[in-house]
Write a structure and sequence with these properties.
homodimer, alpha/beta, Rossmann fold, about 45% helix, DNA-binding
Chain lengths: ~325, ~325
DNA sequence: CTGTTAGCGCGTTCAC
DNA sequence: GTGAACGCGCTAACAG
């Protein structure tokens, strides 16, 4: 593998001059510049990035911590984030915490060992006070997560609003017995949605019935089970708010098996606007989340932080969610 | 940030001894070892990985090249590959080529610049002769891809068999007018499936009708369009083989809108065994692919290559696919 | 068993 | 405009 030294020799110049050409420094005569360029291409020279990182204290890599990849929301987040990284000449390292505190800490260590310039957290397992000390070693930016006492940038979606509009939609349709079901891992995300949910109920002077509450629902199968639970209730809800389209899909398909009509007997709203919302019949009313904008903004802030080296500063960017009404809440004419 | 030098000073020893402790070398007395350990934890010392990489010529990172993340097949591949990497103490860098030759080359350069120890290709855009030269700089392992003239390891699924069993299934059910539709990007993958498809037809002495061929089908919407094309045909197929569950789902949902019964009027087989296969009604007959085993094996071979430093050696590991029969080909009793 | 020394490849003062 | 020399942090001979 050719080094900068080899290039210098071949060009009959010093390492310094070669380095200057590589880094586009001024004060290099055109003659020597082209001499260097020729030598570089002749040798197929490429700078060694470990050496560069050691010298510059920058790796041009960022780690993205997520609970897992196989969740359409996070898949899209990865896709968008990788694109944002690429546009900035950065590489993206994927870190699945699998909801484990230990794994999260292991990955946070990438900052200490200088394997990455910064860390984007889209999932938080540990208490903030155990994460905070890592800020000594580099920037941490929250994406789709939020911590009240964290003095770091946080780019997120207005989940409270999301919970509010979808619940209000159900209330506007006349529903008063509304079940609430959500996944737990989204921590603050789930909490915010619940606040919005309750706020809407309050506005309509409807009180929430605790037996209509379902937690830890993530998958299609979870949705199916929830429906089975619901039909055992004497007093059944007429509508249900879910924290994810998969869960909504599970509820809907299982409802059909049990002869429960959607939306007549049970209206269902999902969350995420995934592809399945248009596949299931009836199609699923859901909440669209502007993941691309969020990813872009997150990365942009990360670049700022990397350059400014000021990591501890609270800053919140919030994007609005959008309700997409489909057939699982409002019966529509059949299309031909 | 504390360096090895700081630790050595605090412990009153030399850098070498500290280094030996870090790397678990023998020949270090217990006394000094604990002296070093204490100094390390007191300073919160962690080795700088750029320095380590520069010295050892290893980065403990591997790049995974895929066309894009937001495709359930690749999402799962990423998820499994990240887990395999983590088990081996490696980090995984995600590289989306977006089907672009240039991007692929940019990412292959990670090998040259020594940012990664190896590259896993799950998608090939450029001709092999332009990829081959990169082998000078590190190992390349193919995963779910195949190149006849590439002298590198290739871990893949027997796509020919996959195409064969699903087509044979349709033939066994009595279908003789079978349409074929597939995505183009899977290059050799798609070709292999087609070979299996044709082989099955041949065994049943059925000839393929060219007007039943649809290319570049990837999405649900593509599936819908294909169905709309099909109904314009005078002579319609009675069954259709697709290269992906999304396409199959699109065909099925659109068929229902047009009053075409699945499977009675049109039998459909998908590919990938994604979650939607059980959501759509009728549920989709599909082909299961053992992605986890493939990812695991790929990474294991990568580790071998990284250590042995012998990169140019052909080696093929192939896993069988499995047909999963559901309602889109065989009408089943309604479950309650 | 332990310390001294010499680079890994690069960027950057600081002289010329 | 250009080059010599130092050091980023670490590991591995080599010599004791």
């Amino acid at each position: 593998m050719a080094t900068i030294e080899d290039v210098a020799k071949l060009a009959g110049l010093s390492r310094t001059t070669v380095s200057r050409v590589i880094n586009n420094h001024p004060y290099v005569s055109e003659k020597k510049r082209s001499l260097v360029m020729n030598a570089m291409s002749e040798l197929g020279y490429v700078p060694n990035s470990s050496a560069r990182s050691l010298r510059s204290q920058k790796t041009e890599m960022v780690a993205l911590l997520i609970p897992r990849v196989m969740n359409p929301f996070f898949s899209e987040l990865i896709e968008r984030m990788e694109m944002a990284a690429a546009e900035n000449g950065y590489q993206l390292i994927i870190c699945q915490t699998k909801y484990s505190k230990k794994k999260e800490l292991d990955y946070l260590n990438l900052l200490k060992t200088k394997q990455v310039d910064g860390i984007i957290l889209s999932s938080i397992q540990n208490d903030w006070n155990v994460i905070e000390p890592f800020l000594e070693f580099g920037p941490i930016v929250l994406c789709n997560e939020f911590e009240e006492d964290a003095h770091v940038p946080s780019v997120r979606l207005d989940q409270t609003y999301g919970g509010y509009i979808s619940t209000k939609h159900l209330l506007d349709l006349g529903h008063r017995k509304i079940a609430y079901c959500t996944g737990g891992y989204k921590s603050n995300v789930a909490k915010s949605r619940e606040i919005g949910f309750l706020k809407a109920l309050e506005e309509f002077e409807v009180s929430f019935q605790e037996e209509f509450s379902f937690r830890n629902a993530f998958t299609i199968e979870d949705g199916r089970e929830i429906l089975r639970e619901i039909i055992t209730l004497k007093d059944r809800p007429t509508a249900i708010f879910t924290g994810g389209d998969e869960v909504a899909a599970g509820i809907i398909t299982e409802a059909k098996r049990h002869g429960i009509k959607v939306p007549e007997d049970l209206a269902v709203v999902g969350f995420d606007n995934q592809a399945i919302t248009e596949l299931v019949e009836p199609s699923i009313t859901t909440v669209y989340q502007p993941i691309e904008e969020m990813a872009r903004k997150t990365f942009q802030i990360m670049m700022e932080k990397v350059n400014s080296k000021r990591y501890r500063q609270k800053e919140i960017v919030e994007y609005d969610l959008e309700l997409i009404v489909r057939e699982s809440t409002v019966k529509q004419g059949v299309l031909i």
